[in-house]
Specification:
CATH class of the largest domain: Mainly Alpha
Domain PAS: 25-65, 258-329
Number of strands: 21
CATH topology of the largest domain: Hypothetical protein af1432
Enzyme class: transferase
Structural class: alpha+beta
Oligomer: single chain
Radius of gyration: 36 Å
CATH architecture of the largest domain: Orthogonal Bundle
Strand content: 15-25%
Domain HD: 558-680
Number of domains: 5
Number of helices: 32
Helix content: 40-55%
Keywords: Nucleotidyltransferase, Transferase
InterPro entries: GGDEF_dom, HD/PDEase_dom, HD_domain, HD_GYP_dom, Nucleotide_cyclase, PAS, PAS-assoc_C, PAS-like_dom_sf
Length: 725
């Protein structure tokens, strides 16, 4: 019978970080899908759904998830289409029985069957919903766009006014195709691709992105006046907002005739409005302004704006500008940003648009300021700017920043320019052994060592996964070597989870202007790799030895236990006539056979009573963990398969793979015998030692079950002869 996709790729699927399930569709008499069965799932499926494999295999989904047939999304019908047509489907949907959002890929490897690969995107959906709610709360048009003017996100106002959607072109949505020739317009309408020559006559996004500065201006489009701004988020994306201020401009001309109407508008507006007299006293403030300042409106009226609501460090500067404007000595300022103080001493950053109210004779009577609270927007902008140049894990500069600094410092006056390339030794082994959280801690520790050892003016950046680069302007090769030596001395006593931190360093120096920075970096990298190759074996061996010492301290895996197993195993291997090389490999495998237990908590390893089911599942994973550790260590990879298989049983009921008979490597079968013997002879925290007769009886009872019967017979002969007791 043809194998299923799960059987063909079992190992891959079992280790997938995404959930995987294999199903058979159930049809009614008319051949319509009415249910489906669970045939197989991987561990990630159990973790993502909370459904245990042993409780769902062979059962229908309507039994496992009652009510799924009444969900808003037709799960059974959709999967039935996949199973019956062979069509692959990718979609996002909310699972009401599980109360989670999933991104799902469903496909069929044969008619009537289908597989799903999925991941939980609930938090992503919540984040997107929160972000969209924040955008939709803004009462004017706001869009997030890329350099090609494609809309990445927009708020409800934009959708309602412009009729645009994500993926559309911003300028087309707002300003039409007036800048295109008839031929270009026809081509654009046919293909949907914006011609290279097309430009919005109003857009200043490119300038804002190049300067990395916010640009705000007013434009008139089809008889409407807009205050529009371009706010860079990073080098490729920007925030564009557009506020229709046509009414504001009309109100400037009719302010005195419609003051009552204006005051009502100001009362409900979401923008701060402040009117100051020529002495800087507050004549009018709207409700929004009073809320931000934290006072009732009546308490603000009559107070001097600069004395009460401007931070002291800026008070004189802003007052002087104001006085210069009302005296006609300074040209009126239309846009201005400055912080204001609330009644609790907290600062809020406000973007002001100012105008002068004049009488019929053209004399200034009052100053009107409309302010938008941009405190949070500015914080977000600063955060995004920080993140664009820093590595989130270590806090160091990132590669993008380093490349900018290369260009900035690639001038004659910075010569000699030295570079130190740094690589963290053994990171993969630490990740495979302790997990990526400890690997991340190792990287952060390396970053801290570099920060301590280098000079204040030196630039440190995370260059790649386990690589750092230190840029040393005006530094000779000899000086750079001294800094490299200082780094090595600094890390001598640095350990993470008892694992010593080890770094490979390469130094190179640019001494002539015509040398390229890329070539200098390559030389440093070559030197670093030479050092890494020389130290890698030592580093891995040190880590393995550290793991063995740690394991000995937290479990029953003592040196005596290992030596006894090696003695008994050697006797058994020699009795079988195995070559000397295999005997040596057996000793190494015995030394490392339980190294995977390093990830198991000490309280479980030393627990005197029986283990709970969840604790036992954790213990059963240690052969696989040990296998991964040894595969990451070339000098020990030769015994990885034996370590992986040493808890398999001859009758196929062992773990982790359920191997049977001679499918189990011979050395793993020997380890199973001598490990069991040592546990019987010397006991464990949860088991007392057995008498000699009990040991013999136990081996005879389990020959052909737990043990290879041939090995068990030979072992008992040796045992009765006292070959290793």
């Amino acid at each position: 019978m043809e194998k299923t996709i799960f059987e063909n790729y079992r190992l891959l699927i079992q280790n997938l970080p995404d959930g995987f399930a294999y199903h058979q569709i159930v049809l009614d008499e008319q051949g319509q899908p009415i249910d489906y069965l669970f045939l197989e799932v991987n561990p990630a499926f159990e973790e993502l759904t909370g459904l245990k494999r042993e409780k769902i295999l062979g059962r229908r989904v309507t039994e496992v998830l009652p009510g799924i047939e009444r969900s808003s999304f037709d799960w059974i019908g959709t999967y039935g289409q996949v199973a019956l047509t062979g069509e692959t489907m990718r979609f996002e949907s909310f699972s009401e029985p599980l109360s989670r959002w999933f991104e799902v890929t469903a496909y069929s490897d044969r008619r009537g069957f289908f597989a799903t690969i999925f991941r939980d995107i609930t938090e992503l959906k919540k984040t997107q919903e929160r972000q969209q709610k924040l955008l939709d709360a803004i009462p004017y048009s706001v869009l997030l766009l890329n350099r090609e003017r494609r809309i990445l996100a927009q708020n409800k106002v934009t959708r309602d006014v412009a009729g645009s959607k994500v993926g559309d072109l911003c300028w087309f949505s707002f300003h039409g195709t007036e800048t295109l020739s008839e031929e270009e317009r026809e081509e654009f309408e046919r293909t949907g691709v914006l011609p290279a020559s097309a430009r919005c006559i109003f857009c200043r996004a490119d300038e804002a992105l190049e300067k990395q500065q916010t640009i705000v201006e007013e434009v008139e489009i089809r008889g409407r006046v807009y205050e529009t701004g371009w706010v860079p988020v990073d080098g490729e994306t920007y925030l564009h907002y557009s506020i229709d201020i046509t009414k504001y401009r009309e109100m400037e001309r009719t302010l005195r005739r419609e003051r009552d109407r204006l005051r009502e508008y100001l009362r409900i507006a979401d923008i701060i409005f402040v009117v100051l007299n020529l002495q800087g006293e507050v004549v009018l403030i709207n409700q929004k302004g009073a809320e931000i300042l934290g006072y009732p409106q009546e308490e603000i009226l009559g107070k001097n704006w600069f004395d009460f609501f401007i931070p002291e460090r800026l008070r004189d500067k802003i007052r002087n500008v104001f006085q210069g404007v009302v005296a006609g000595e300074i040209e009126q300022f239309g846009y201005y940003e400055n912080p204001i103080l609330d009644r609790y001493g907290r600062e809020r950053l406000i973007a002001w648009h100012n105008t002068l109210l004049k009488n019929e004779q053209g004399q200034i009577e009052e100053v009107i300021a409309a302010g938008l609270d941009i405190t949070e927007a500015r914080k977000m902008e600063e955060k995004l700017r920080y993140l664009s140049f820093h590595d989130s894990l270590t806090g160091l500069y990132n590669r993008a920043f380093l490349e900018e600094e290369f260009r900035r410092l690639d001038v004659a006056r910075q010569l000699p320019l030295s570079v130190i390339m740094v690589d963290v030794n053994g990171l993969k082994l630490v990740n495979d052994t302790y997990g990526h959280q400890v690997g991340d801690l190792l990287l952060r520790s390396a970053a801290r060592v570099l920060q301590i050892a280098v000079r204040e003016e030196d630039i440190i950046a995370r260059y790649g996964g386990d690589e750092f680069v230190i840029l040393l302007p005006q530094t000779t090769y000899e000086m750079a070597q001294e800094i490299a030596l200082r780094i090595q001395k600094t890390l001598e006593r640095t350990r993470v989870c008892d694992v010593p931190l080890s770094l490979a360093l390469g130094v190179a120096t640019k001494t002539r202007k015509r040398e390229s920075v890329a070539e200098v970096l390559r030389k440093a990298e070559d030197e670093m790799y030479r050092q890494k190759l020389a130290e890698t074996r030592s580093t891995r061996s040190t880590i393995i030895n550290t793991l063995l010492k740690t394991l000995e301290a937290k479990s029953q895996e003592t040196k005596q236990h290992v030596l006894r197993m090696q003695e008994a195993g050697t006797a058994l291997a020699q009795a079988l006539g195995l070559p000397h090389s295999e005997v040596n490999r057996l000793k190494l495998a015995i030394l490392l056979h339980d190294i995977g237990k390093i990830t198991i908590p000490e309280e479980i390893l030393k627990k005197p009573g029986p283990l709970t089911p969840s604790e036992w599942e954790m213990v059963k994973k240690h052969p696989e963990v040990g296998y991964r550790i040894l595969l990451a260590t070339p000098e020990f990879a030769q015994v990885a398969e034996e370590v992986y298989s040493h808890h398999e049983r001859f009758d196929g009921t062992g773990y982790p793979r359920g191997l049977r008979g001679e499918e189990i490597p011979i050395l793993a079968r020997i380890i199973a015998v001598v490990d069991a013997y040592d546990a019987m002879r010397y006991g464990r925290s949860y088991k007392n030692p057995l008498e000699r007769e009990e040991i013999i009886a136990e081996f005879r009872r389990n020959a052909g079950k737990q043990f290879d019967p041939k090995l068990a017979d030979i072992f008992l002969v040796l045992f009765e002869q006292g070959a290793f007791d």
